[in-house]
Amino acid sequence: MAVSRFTITREPLILRALVEAVLEAHHDDARATGRPSPGAAASFVGLVRNENAGRRVLYLEYEAYEPLALAVFERITNEVNKRWPEVVLGIHHRIGRLDVGQPSVAIVASSPHRAEASGACRYVIERVKQIAPIWKREVFDGGETWIEGAVADPEDEAAAAEAWRRACA
Asked: What is 6-168's CATH number?
């Protein structure tokens, strides 16, 4: 069964499947349009840490408004393609309970060149944290707290500029 390039799931993330889906889409695009095929694939995998703000983290619980989160993934892809038109992206995000060490987000960017693929991965994670309707509850020794998420307006050009700055610094 084909793996979607954009997914919100309760299932464990499988980076290899996402890489294969992105590369297949990129090769298909190259054959159909005559644009360059991928010469690089960069990935980012976010993991649940065992410590945050000086507290021992026990686990995280993620929630998402899935239809809007998938639309935001497409929006981020469009933003990336304005700067790097040859980049092909994939974004998978877990929801539900995740234990320390488990992957919560996987991003893959393919491009004819490594710099664009790497920059795109960095930009995507910054924007996901800024504008995707995905929230996490952190459970730690002695309590729990909701970690603020999706705090920027997707139309806020200053927030997007900050994500570009971080991605290209």
From this structure: 3.90.1170.40
